[in-house]
Records
---
Amino acid sequence: MIEGGAIRGVNLFQSFSEFNVGDGERVYFANPAGIENIFSRVTGQNSSRIFGILGVNGNANLFLINPNGIIFGQNARLDVAGSFVATTANAIGFGQNGFFSASSPQAPSPLLTVNPSVFLFNQINQNATIQNNSVAPAGRNPSGGDAFGLRVGDGKSLLLVGGNILMDGGALRAYSGRVELGGLAAPGNINLFVDGDNLRLGFPENVTRADISLSDRARVYVQAAGGGDIAINARNLEILEGSELSAGIGQGLGIPETVAGDITLNATGEIKVADSESGIRNLVREDSKGNGGNIFIDSGSFSLRDGARLVTSTLGRGNAGNVTVTVKDAVSLLGGQTTIFSSVEAGGVGKGGNININAASLSLKDGAQLLTSIRETSENQPAEPKNAGDVSIRVK
């Protein structure tokens, strides 16, 4: 148990020259009464290797700050009831009250009693990445299946703030919460918005973003009984080799008033989704109730190929969300079964979503499709109202 540290209001500050969790080890931060945020900085020159269990003995949010990189091994686990942030920023700022720096460590100011407001990147280490390979057991998901990877409490936020971010077979899970990935490749700041333990990033327009890659069946899941957002801000984003982003309403969950969260991908360069099992999905699953969320793509260029899919569909009772792709240059879909689609599936009741494409050019080759559809129920089942969405294409 890690105890002590400097308390400033609802914030607890910890400092380490090295911070690692070995395979099979358990490292927990004590959570004194009244503490809402725990900030742990690493002031040495080595990356942090989290290969065991990292936890908080309470409900506080946990921030791990190491400008030299953070690696989560295959057996890494989080036991964090609040939100969790891993960052390679040099410091975290607290409005006009000062900052908590890992690169120029000083004792935390008595004024650091408010919520954090910004990540400061002023000495970029180009070799400092955040890498997640975790596939460790992480309990049961809200629909009753097994979960694996890094998981925070349901309804909480899980943020990786780089530098480059690599997910090689690893998984991130924040059911009904928020997973956000993003980082910088040159000096600048990323804003942080805090609403309790709901955390969200803000990227100024003039910053140089870093690259993000999901490969080898990497997974990001927020699908549960409502809510659940995924946001990625990058220079270039790759989703490859059976990797998946998944939001929506989980199987057997929700009520008619339920609304799922959105998947929002923003890249100044290219977004590429490839391979037949790779995809971005925001679904109302079987036997579920409520309306699905949307998928928003905003990038310099966008390619979907080799059977990859963007999907907003309803298999339950509720409407599917929309797919909106806004690209400065080209949208390219290539290969059989490569599809952007929204459907009302057999057994589903509701409206399909719309597909909106805004780009300088659009290319569909070798059987790729844009599709909205309705799949009918069997002849022995009574028909219920279904409506397909529209496809809108604006090419400049």
---
Amino acid sequence: MNPSVLFVSAEAAPFAKVGGMADVVGSLPGALRRLGVDARVLLPYYGFIDSERYSIIPLFTFPFDRRTGTTQVQVFTTTYQQVPVYFVQGWPFFGEERQVYSQWDWDMPRFIFFSQVAMAVAWELRARLDWFPDVFHVNDWHTGLIPFLLHESRHDPVWAQTASVLSIHNLAYQGDHAGGWLWELGIPGRHHPDLVYQDLTDNLLAIAIAYSDMISTVSPRYAIEIQYPYMGYGLDGLIRVRLNDLVGILNGIDTELWNPATDHLIVSNFDADNFEEKRPPNKRQLQQDAGLEIRDDVPVIGMVTRLVKQKGMDLALPALRRLLVNTDVQFIVLGSGEPEWDHQFWRLGQDFYWRARTFLGYNAALAQRIYAGCDIFLMPSHYEPCGLGQMLAMRYGALPLVRETGGLADTVTNYDDGPADQGTGFVFQWEEPDAVYHTLRWAINTYRYRQPAWRRMQRRAMLKDFSWDNSARQYIDLYHQAVAKRRGSHDG
């Protein structure tokens, strides 16, 4: 029998989304339920969540005692794509926010409280609905305190049987220097020897890594990369201690939602069998939307991204400027991020107005049209735990050009123009603008002079299976391992 699972997360699409974690928590529980797992989700009830749109209703209220007082916790619920979702509200921590994350010094107590109250909500669900999780599936630092709290409650026979699985979506964000708030909110001392030895007792993600029964990352390659200092961000030593409990499971995508054959946001639907005839109108529409010359013969480079250094903006910008000076190519970017890069890419669109456009912010329809209309999708990330854009691009027939890192390395096969005739995109390794430039030149030349090979690559890319089914099965195995480890340890 499969374990029951409660996902606890700061984000879950479509209710609250900032990054890729929201897509995982918004999609994976549904895939698990289709495979027979009773998976449910627990989120903060942020002030911006539209209760009418999602039919969210009150469920119950209970008092929660903490070190500095008692909070009346309200729990709300809805069902989204067959998944029960619970929302927690408790003043002053959650209830009036207009965004998921606020100032650092306020996010810390909010999410420490959320970790505390998550266990209390599970206890109330047991009493009121006769449902209790076998596994808490926690995500990143925001819910990283739960494995420790489970450890502290191990003398209770119910909690002693409850396992924890941590998913690391981005190791760079850790919730460190939390000591004052941990004390303020009544959290006991963390005496795990690996935390004490490495001076990580006040780091919420480190606490989660030390105390979780099992740990996953969002791609196999990323599980390897974080074992080394360059991408370990000070936690690589702790990660190496837990290697026997670490597994990399590639994220999937919702293939029903992201489907060029049914997507109502694009002007011409297509699939892997008819894309040669049906995809070109989307390219023309994209060029028209961007105010660029409508031409089938010019290669279009697209980006849908956060304009931040992690995404390789410092590699892309010099390469694109060099390329746009004397190359018959078009470039379209949609995104926003750090003010420096917002300005630099706005400037790029101004300087090369006849062949480049920059759209700052986010526009869902334009994003879909970039995936469906561009020829080359650029993702030159310094690191990418999994990445969603490259999978969406391939699904929609755009060939990704990526750096060999994390999930990009796991999902994009480099073009081989030899007898093997293989590949689903273009891959470079070195973190240098020259590497981006020359790989772009290679892709453009392939587009211009090897169209049959390009079409075969497009078809291979569109036929790749990025659904959640395989990944969900791997998570089920992970849950079984976590439960066996927890209960075996308790029995011992």
---
Amino acid sequence: MNHILVLTVLMVVLSVPVVAGSLDLTNDAATGGPGQFAAEEIRREANAKGMTLGHDATATRIALTVVGKGSNAAAQSYSLRVQYEGGRRVITVRGADETGAMYGGLDIAEALRTGTLDALQDSDHTPHIAQRGIKFNIPLDLRTPSYTDPSDAAQANIPEMWSMAFWRELFDDMARHRYNVISLWSLNPFPSIVKVPEFPNVALEDVWRTKAKLDASFGPQGRDFVRPEMLANHEVVRRMTMDEKIQFWRDVMQLAKDRGIAVYWFTWNTFLFGAEGKDGITSNKTAPRTIEYFRASVRETIKTYPLLAGFGITAGEGMPLHEFKSISKEQWLWQTYGEGIRDGLKETPNRKFRLIHRFHMTGLGEVQKEFAELPCTLDLSFKYAVAHM
């Protein structure tokens, strides 16, 4: 008996909406850099769909606007309004601010990409969580490590931290996914990012990484993250003066601002990598010269980077109790970061700035007592369930 096997093949055809026609895009100058980014995203998606851009009388008109300072709308919020004028469709984004206008524009870009532009209707949008951020342990340089630097991955990524293409790709994606904060974490970033007049020999030229073989013997407290053999066996991955480094980070922060993203520097806090042994700085963390160095570094970082949103600090790693007998950890943090912030904001008292004090190895009462005269916003960061929020 012959058996005949019959195969029935089902062909499933997925229907993908096709956007056709043309767009007439206008972008109010008040939307700033964020609005410009959203406009570029709209143009890119329209081009990908084969749409023409121009002032055709039948074109769908897209307008990105900001409602103005007199509005009571929440920061980052926006509305979409859809109407018809002279037989053509008009979609208006009304942002409460530059970032809101950008998010509304990105909604339109996404509708173009998914073929759902015709489905857009009147809507209002306000963020449920105001600050939506990414924590980033940043491998700046062999000599100024972060908490994850004793690894092959971090050493390989050191050159990328000094590539504008990296930051552009990162910030573009953050904006598309509505992230608006990035915190850059380093044990002591100052030698790699700022010049301090009172400590002229601390600023680091060039960018280094180690060629030494790394293993799992590094401690959990960060104290041995720069070993002599790592310094002895290093390579220069980029030649840069400190002035060039400063301009680079100014450009990074401008790029972030143009995507609605605030940039913070976080530290752990008395690590002296890159500074110890220079300009009178010793390993004594509570010495007057050490306190002077950190205070001046905080001051100069604020003055050097007008777009910096704030600092984050920790009364934890790098601050062992046996080294803080003549002065408490919170007193040290006030005399360095608190006073440094006050010095840095003295010439621009209306500047929006934030100090985020991690609620880690410290107590609320002492924080409130020591930082009572802080001239900017003080927030507490609480690590719950060993996670971040």
